[in-house]
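Q: Study each token:
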Amino acid sequence: MARQAGHHGPHGPARLPARQSLRGRLIRRPAPPHPGRCGPLFSPRSRSRPITRCSRDCYGACLDSAAAGRQPWWAALARAAGRWGTGRGQAPRKGPGTGHATGSETGRRAMRRQLATAALLLAAAPAAAQDRDEILEAITLPEGFRISVFAEVPGARSIALTEPGGPIFIGSRDGAVHSIRDVDGDGLAEEVQERATDLNVPNGLAVRDGRLYLALQDRVAVWTGGPEGLSGDGPLEPLETVYDTFHDAYHHGWRYAKFGPDGRLYVSLGAPCNICALTETTGKIISIAPDGSDMRLVADGVRNSVGFAWQPGTGVLYFTDNGADRMGDDIPPDELNAVETPGGHYGFPWRGGRVALTGHENETPPVEVIDPVVEFRAHTASLGFDFVDSGMLPGDWQGDAVVAQHGSWNRSRPIGYRLMRVRFGEDGDPEGREVFAEGWLKENGDVLGRPVDVAQMPDGALLVTDDHAGLVYRITYE
């Protein structure tokens, strides 16, 4: 595999002076405090600080505590961290019978977002120029492919494209939504604008008929645009709620959303746990009409899907699903699934892939389980992906999928932090998988970045978000 990095088309390597951002003014946010005995999540002086095993274990412990109902997850994290919370590290006082801290809802959401930013390693600021260079030099791609920095976006996650040449919206898990735009078509986004700052986990974004849909933790909201439509530069106000029948919990509450070929909005509803029984509003993918009406079940028994796309030609919906934790380094697998018939069941909480999950080893699932069409390595955190349908990429890539693997957080030996290629045959079925791009995880365990989402641009280039480095990459082929 050849090393190809730091290039964006005919304009040569993307190199910017230190402390100069792609937008001319770098957005910086304060790094979270060191979480006490758990150790730093990343170095304040270098974004390549290894993700320590202790930090990963503390995060897992806090989620276990929350799932068991002992205390709110964010209070558990505060306790594990040893510094956050109120009253000398104690959890915030709970209201009678509520299971939540007293105080305003705004305050509680602000606390959750602040703690999640540290625990989930969201980028506190875009990478410095020297860090960008280090990342680009480290990434390896097949011969002929090139990767460059397209934009700096703190905590960059889901991608929502608009019309060619229009703004591209980037979601996050820390309350912010950005729009980026390549004004002159040179492969670099000259405009990077923060459009919202205090939303409830705006991870899922989708565009339809000149409207921006935001799948938040607690609802689906719509922004109809300003006087210039989506192309303006004003705040995303006002937002109109069109659907709010969600289980409002942060654990796996970062929704993913896309419009399907049928004109309906598809939204993932993660299970708020590691392994647990599901309800009518958890562990599913649903679809709704653009006005929020006519909810339909698309897939059931889905632990946590943070990526789906429709296969060109067949129109079949494929989705990723993240496997359960704390069953060892190698099981259960992450999954790529196909929805041949809406409403099918994909196994959770009884099965992860073809593996019986903890607590269900001797049980036969009471439903017919649909097996995954591709199994990825356990704990790779396979998230967003897109199918290749581009004249820019080689002919033998047409119809294949590129999948972002965010990377493990509790495996004894880290894995993931890369892009995978899933090869599809002429019959439209998957034939195999292979590493496409890697280097974000260094051999010594240091982490340079964590890919999140993939989207093919109108010109055929691939955009890839990275919420750890705070970057959006552009991958081309020559």
